[in-house]
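cron nightly-structures :: item 1 of 1
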Amino acid sequence: MRTNLYLLLIVCSISLLTCTRAPEYDLIIRGGTVYDGTGNAPIVTNVAIKGDRIAAVGTLPDAHGVDEIDAHGLAVAPGFINMLSWANESLIEDGRSQSDIRQGVTLEIFGEGESMGPLNPSMKKEMQERQGDIKYTVEWTTLREYLEYLVRRGVSTNVASFVGAATIREYALGYDNRPPNAEELELMRKLVRGAMEDGALGVGSALIYAPGFYAKTDELIELCKVASSYGGMYISHLRNEGNGLLEAIDELLRISKEAKIPAEIYHLKESGNLNWGKIGAVIQKVEAAQREGLNISADMYTYTAGATGLDASMPPWVQEGGVVEWIKRLKDPATRRRVVQEMRTPTKQWENLLLGAGTPKNVLLVGFRQDSLRYLTGKTLAEVATMRHKTPEETAMDLVIDDDSRVGTIYFLMSEENVKKQIALPWVSFGSDEGSLAPEGVFLKSNPHPRAYGNVARLLGKYVRDEKIISLEEAIRRLSSSPAEKLKIRDRGVLRAGCFADVVVFDPAKIADFATFEKPHQYSTGMIHVFVNGKLVLKNGDHTGAKPGMVVLGP
């Protein structure tokens, strides 16, 4: 009897020791084809998560998790980084970030020229008054306060931002078309310094739009010197993506060199068929600068059309002073005649997307402020001009006046061949240049660019799987570790023990985009599970409602 008791105690002791030795995880993703994000060839293995971190990657023979997912036949990868997101307002409306989460995006990067802070009282007032379909109270002043406001409300994706050069300029100079004086420039430097200390990624510019257009190169260099001292980056919508493209790249290279700062080209493109042949010179300029030691890169979206407003068809001088002054000028007959003439005249002095599109038939109207004009959504500028018996230029001006806004517009500008050439470049990452939406509620009041629903899925489906422009491991690298390294974001972008558990599980054979220019509100498919900071946000293709997103800080 006593012998049996001893044997029982020994067995129990061995069992306890075995249980103690066996790792305990919150989740194990088993048997997936794991792409670690670095560009290495994938391996079939397991990924373990504990809390908000990846705990282990490997065979894990004795391990077990509270939950386990069978990922055999599926790709497992780091969460994707959207290098150019305009979800800064859409996430206020709906923090689920549906259209991006369903493509595997786990980090949204804001700040193309404009940022949600810092704001002075007049900027707060204008932001409140000029809102479109999405309404909110401006409860923040600094950029960091805005990001924390989003997280407090609840967001499914992580969020980070550049500080906008145009926002800094507006804070100090309003919408004046002039250089800052010494006192104003010092204020601008101070504002950049404050944003960088609060975790901004660097300085972002958008140089075809007022008031960003009014900034001279020297002004941008001064702001970038401040960001550089904190390890930040300069990222820019170039001053010209069409007739003056090569000169605009020269400006970016000069800023990078003189401010000693890494620089990235937002949504690299060659706008207008007369400029499509410049892609070789673009690549040559960037890669020559890289060989000289400059840290230059770019991002892009996977479509041949861009989206902005009718302001991108009109000279920047007419927009000085903001929307109210712009509209006032457009009502003046003499000013209208001058604007029409300049809208019809090719130039390198400013970028005219109406001319870049080649014809008003390639200009699609997709977003209005006024309900009375929403019936025009989805019509081309040519169609509306015919309806109104006016020229396209006059029609564009009238629409701005009638809508009291820049009017959301899609311009067909690029060539498919160049899109493919750019995707093949190892220094190009990807950004949607759109909000993160859902086919419901307020979002249905306008038509977004289909890139809001399909930018990443289109890359992984059309260009990687179907057309084999690049390998899947290379595409994943450029959606994850590459942007994380550029942005100096730590512990994200790779599947490695100790990193944050931003993890996606998808079917490479089925991932596909369905959004079109005619019917843009359509989700992509093929993404199965998405984890953000260890929390399951997408489960079997359905949103769980979880909002574990965090503020991600810069260097």
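cron nightly-structures :: done
The CA atoms of residues 113 and 205 lie 4 Å apart.
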